[in-house]
Amino acid sequence: MSKHHESNKLGIPLQRLPVGRWARLVDNVPRKISPRFLDLGFVPGTRLKIVRRAPLGDPIEIEIRGTRLCFRRSQLRGLRVVLEDETEP
Amino acid sequence: MSVTAAAIQPSRPVRLALVGSPNAGKTTLFNALTGSSARVGNYAGVTVERREGMLKGSNGQVIILDLPGTYALRGESPDERIVEKVLEGKLAGEAEVDGIVAVADATTLRRGLGLVRQLLSHRRPTILVLTMIDEVRARGGRIDVRGLARQLGIPVVGVVGHRGVGIDQVIRLLRDPWHWPQPKTWPPADEDPLRRFAWVDAVCKAVGADELPPDRRTDRIDRWLLHPVFGLVTLAVVLIVFFQSIFTWAAPAMDTIDAIFTGLAAFCRDVLPSGWLTELWAGGVITGVGSVLVFLPQIVILFTFVHLLNDLGYMARAAFVLDRVMGWVGLQGRSFVPLLSCFACAVPGIMATRTIASPRERLATILVAPFMTCSARLPVYTLLIAAFVPARTVWGPVGLQGLVMLGLYLLGACTALLSAALLSSTLLRGTPSVFYMELPPYRWPTFRLLIRQVWGSAYAFLKRAGTIILAVSVVMWCLLSIPRAPQIPGLSAAEQARANLEASVAGRLGQAIEPAIRPLGFDWKIGVGLIASLAAREVMVSTLAQIHAVGNPDDYEGLREALRRDIDPITGRRHFTLATALSLLVFFVFALQCTSTMVVMARETGSWRWPAFAFGYMLSLAWVASFITYQAATALELG
After folding, report:
1. Is residue A88, in this structure, part of any structural domain at all?
2. Does the beta-carbon distance from B438 to A47 stay under 8 Å?
3. Bridge-based pairing state of the strands B49-54 and B99-105
4. What is the pTM of this model?
5. How far apart are CA B203 and CA B128, in angstroms?
6. Cβ <8 Å between A72 and B435
7. Does the ipTM surpass 0.95?
8. What residues of A are in contact with residue B435 (Cβ under 8 Å)?
9. Which of B24, B139, B419, B567 is the most buried (most CB within 10 A)?
10. CA–CA dist B11, B14 (Å, integer)
11. Which CATH number does the domain housing residue A40 bear?
C-alpha cells in the first residue's frame, strides 16, 4: 500500500505519458529543469496532456494552460507526472 | 480633465509599450490602434526591430511602442532582453515608457496572465487588452472582463482586433494613462514562478475562467496535417504548389512587364537624339532596372505564400513536422522559421534568428542561412531555366521547369542542413538549448494585414531596384561602354559592337578572371556578370541584359532569346550551352553574392569575421560544385 503511494508521488516520466491522457505535474520539480519551463507555467499540480507526437516521432505537442506547445522529448527529461484519474481517490 | 491631472502630465507625448506573447494578436492590435502611422526601425546598437506609431486621433500626443513578442520577462533571447530593458528604462537611446499595454490572448488566459503578473512588478500604469474574445465564446467558454479587472485592479478591455470590436474603448483609455486604476498591492520584482502561477490559478478560479475545450476545427485539421503519413505528404504538396505557382501564375504578368520595358527602351532610342546619353538611358537604366523589375510578380507571389502560410498557422506545423530533421543537423525547430524566411530574403531571415535563445544554434543558423534560395536568386534561376530547360510536362500539371526549380531549392536547403551538421559538430560544438514552440489555432488571416505585409516586402524589393540595382546598372553600363575600340572600316555593326565590348573596362575585367572560371564553363561575359553580382545576385540578370543589349543594340529581343542565340563567331558554337547554364545555376546556389547579407551578418554576430568566413567557404564550395557540374555535364554531352 505504502509502495503504491510512493510511486504515485514520484509519478512517471512525462515522456512516457500515453498520448491523450490528462495528468498533473508532481510536486518535486527538479533543479536541473530550465527556468523556461517554470515561466511557461510548468509548475507542480498543473494539468497537461500529450496531444500528439510529430510524424517523425519527435517533438511532442503538449496541451497545458489552454495552449499547445511543442517540445523535444529529450528536454522534458526530469519532469514527472501522475495520471489524473489515479490522483482522485 | 481635472487640473491636478493636467499638472502631472508631462509636456512631451505619452509613451506606451505594447507587450504580449507571440501569437497574442499584438500586431493586429498595433495596426488597429495606430492606423498607418507606424515607423519601423531598429533599437540603437542592436538589430531588434523597433516599431512605433501614433495612437489614432491623439494628434501625436500618444506614442505606442510595439515590443517584440515574449512569453516571459527575464528571457534569454535578444528579443526578450530588449523587452526587459525597455520596461526598466535602461535601454540607451530609448525614453522611459509611461505605461504598459499588456496584450493577452483570451483563449490562453491561464498562461498569458503569468506575463501580466510579471509586467505588474514594474509598478507602472498598466492595462490589459484581451484579444480574440470572440473565439472564447465560439469555443463555449465565457470571459468575465469586469471580474478580471476587479481581480487585477487594472483596466481590462476585451477586443476582436481584426473586426475593430472594443478598439474605440482601448483608444479612449490609452489617451490618459494617468487616470488608470492601479492595483492595491504590486507583485514583488523577483517572484517565484510557483507563486506567480498559484496567483494566476486563483484569479482564473475567481472569475470562472475555465480551461477551454480545444478548438475543434484546429483539432480536425491537425489530425490530417500532422498525421504521420498525410502530414508529410501535405508538406510535400504545399512545397510543390508553392514552386509551381511561382512559375506558372507569374508568367503572364512577367511577359507584360518585359514587353513594356523592351518597348520603352526601343521608344527612347526612336524618339531621343542618338548619342551616348540616350544609350545610357535606354541600354543602361531602362534595360537594367527593367530586367529586374520583371520579377516583381514572382516576388509578390512568393511573399503572399510565406505570409499566408505563417498567418494561417501552417508555418509552425511545418516546423513541428521537420524539427526532428533539424535536430539531426544540430539546429532546432526555431531555426526552421528563419530559414524558411530566407526563401524570401536572407536579411529578414538572419534577423529572425533573434528568437533563438542559444548563441551557438543562432550562429549556426545565421551561417547557413545564405544557402537557402532567396528571391534574388529567382531572377537568375528563372532566366536560365526558361532559356535552357525545355518546357515539357512531366506529369499532369507538373512541368519539367518547375521540377528543376524545386530541385535547386532542395539543393540549397540540403546544403544548408549539411553545413549546419558540419558546423555544429566541429566549430560550434555544445549542448542544444531548450526548444519550444506554440502551435496556434488555425485562423483566417485578415485580408488587410496580408496585403500590408506583402506590400511591405514588395516595396523593399522595389526600393532595391530603385537604388542598388539602378546604381549598379548605371556603373555597369559605363564600364561596359568605356573605352571604345577604334572604328575599323569594313566591320559590320554587330562586330564593331562586340569589339567595343571586349575593349571596355568591364570586358577586360571579365577577360582577366576568365582563366579562373573557364573550367566552370563560363566565358568572360559571364565573368563580368559574376563580378557585378557580388553587389546583389539579381544584378547578374541586368548585367547580362546590358551586355547583350550593348553588344547587339539593333536586334535585341529579350534576354532569353539573346542567350540562346549567342554564337561564338570563331568556333560557331553557342556560348551558352545547357552545361554552362547548369554550372551557373549551381554556382548561384552556393555562392554568397550579396552585400546586404554580409552587412547584416556582421551586425548580428558583432564582427566581420563570420561574414568573411561565410563568403570564403561558400565561394570555394560554389567553384568546386560548378566545376563538377560542368565537367560531368560535358562528359554526358549535355552541351
Report:
1. no
2. no
3. unpaired
4. 0.74
5. 14
6. yes
7. no
8. 59, 71-72, 75
9. B24
10. 9
11. 2.30.30.90
